[in-house]
Amino acid sequence: MQFAKRLACAALTFVVSNMSPAFAAREKLVIGITQFPSTFHPNIDAMAAKSYIHAMVARPFTTYDKDWNLVCMLCTELPTIENGLAKPELTADGKQGIAVTYTIQAKATWGDGVAVTTKDAVFTWKVGRHQKSGVGNIELYRSIYKIDTLSDKSFTLHFDKLTFDYNGINDFNLLPAHLEEKKFSEPGAYKNRTAYDTDALNKGLFFGPYLMTEMATGSHVVLEPNPTWYGRPPKFKQIVVRAIGNTAALEANLLSGGIDMIAGELGLTIDQAISFEKRHKQKYDILYKPGLVYEHIDLNLENPFLQDLRVRKALVHAIDRQTISERLFGGRQPVAHTSVNPLDWVFADDVPKYGYDPKQAATLLDAAGWRMGDTGFRINGQGQKLGFELMTTAGNRTRELVQQILQSQWKAVGIDVRIKNEPARVFFGQTMTERRYTGMGMYAWMSSPENIPRTTLHSNHIPTKSNNFSGQNYTSYKNPAMDELLERIETELDKSKRLVLWRQLQHIYARDLPVIPLYFRANAFILPKWLSGVEPTGHQYSTTLWVENWEIRP
Fold it and tell me: For residue range 440-468, what is the model confidence (pLDDT) as tens digits?
């Protein structure tokens, strides 16, 4: 390892001495994204901006690569039943479970020099399973009912059920026990006391190829190489991630040299990218990656107007999603009818579909007791107007345009929609997470292959004050049949039988309409021609998980 490092340093010295000043300046990479994280805690609040940055300063135990294969990152070998590192077993109450053993990379070390050990794994598990910790994927940690520490670097997780994806612990994001244990002394207050927010530049929070060395809330973070990183040395001496919420300003900053690239995960929309490519393809590489990104509108099902399925169906019938896709996105973003993408092998194409049909929307609203009033909007027998608030992330030009189209099309059938947008860190950090929205919230879910939507659809995952807003079922959707299906799919190992269950799930989803499906997004990566190694994945795990492979073309 030392020999390799010396070779790298010697080579770098030689290259730099022969670089032009402009080329030498590229030791710094400036990335533009559209959002700033609401928190830097890896397990609290599901937000793409945080995941994008966190992937450069830490690594998950397992993840999906660009070919959609499950691979180890922090672990040394992927456990399987075949290699003996995963062993089916019975739980204390006689149910089928499994014991899965992981070994942490030998040289994995937190940025302050403290070794990454099983103590961190045990602490992360304790935080994750506590009802008041505020962790998003609490089900993962609840399902792990015991941990055996085998050594400082090896441990066994005991799961209370044998699932088809038993060895994927992608959301088990490690926390540094030596820094966070005291912060967790009062679990209910932990969400607001974590060092990831109160001491975000502490080197001991990170063990990835980079450390976060500067942070200005809402503006930018600065990353520099981590001397304790155990993997391939990163090529850039500094990476700056700038949050520019307005996509028009994001493009302007790219053209002026304020940023070098625009992240596909959180950047220009397809329509903007297509327009940009026509004008600037000589200077930039534009990569289009269709993927598992689901743009939709969450409906607050505690709103009495939205509890009526006829109203929800009318809302979908009243909008022309196909025309929106064709005119705004050049047909590159297909209309969604459920949350399951056609790229996923479990996709079912025979679900109920709600095409553009304003007359049918009107019929449904009439049947639901909403008659057209003198003002052009519908009212019920109590004189209440049928209206909703539609929220999304402020500054996203395309989302704001889509909002205006939806507002106009809903008005045509007598539904009053008021637009109210917020900065992403507020929208995701409070409004959706704490279910403060009153009507509709438009955003995207990013998922992995065959990702069971348990945290977004199971009734046990509705965020409430009593559980410190853990879970991601922001709609408050409750259906016992859906709950049962989610449980059955997890534990069905036979792919053909699982496919049947997935079809049933999609049919219930399309029938119940807890959300309004819009379209499946494609991401556009705007890269300088001198940058290589950026490989879009097409799923929720970002390109930055392999940032050490990014380099400057000669």
Answer: 999 999 888 999 999 999 999 999 988 88
Span 180-219, pLDDT tens digits: 999 999 998 998 899 999 999 999 999 999 999 999 999 9
User: For the chain, where do the domains classified as CATH 3.10.105.10 start and end?
Assistant: 292-521
CB 101 within 8 A of CB 86: yes
Q: How far apart are CA 347 and CA 152, in angstroms?
A: 42
Q: Residue 220 contacts by C-beta under 8 Å, 6 or more apart in sequence?
A: 214, 240, 241, 242, 243
Picking from 550, 527, 543, 530, the residue whose alpha carbon sits closest to that of residue 25 is: 530
Q: What are phi and psi of 16, to 5 degrees?
A: -60, -40
Look up tokens 């809903």; give the residue.
410
Q: Which of these CATH numbers, 3.40.50.150, 3.40.1500.20, 3.30.40.10, 3.40.190.10, describes 2-243? A: 3.40.190.10
Which tokens belong to 542?
């970002």
Q: What is the mean pLDDT of residues 9-17?
A: 28
Our CA dihedral for 75, 76, 81, 87, rounded to 10 degrees, sits at -60
For residues 545 and 549, what is the distance between their CA atoms, to the nearest angstrom? 9
What the block records as the tokens of 41 is 């805690």
Assign domain 292-521 to a CATH class.
Answer: alpha beta
Q: By the 8 A CB rule, do 305 and 72 touch?
A: no
Domain span(s) for CATH 3.40.190.10 in the chain: 2-243
CB 124 within 8 A of CB 89: no
In a 13 Å sphere around the CA of 521, the CA atoms on its Cβ side amount to: 25
For the chain, state the CA radius of gyration: 24
Burial 205-217 (b: 16+ CB within 10 A, else e): bbbbbbbbeebee
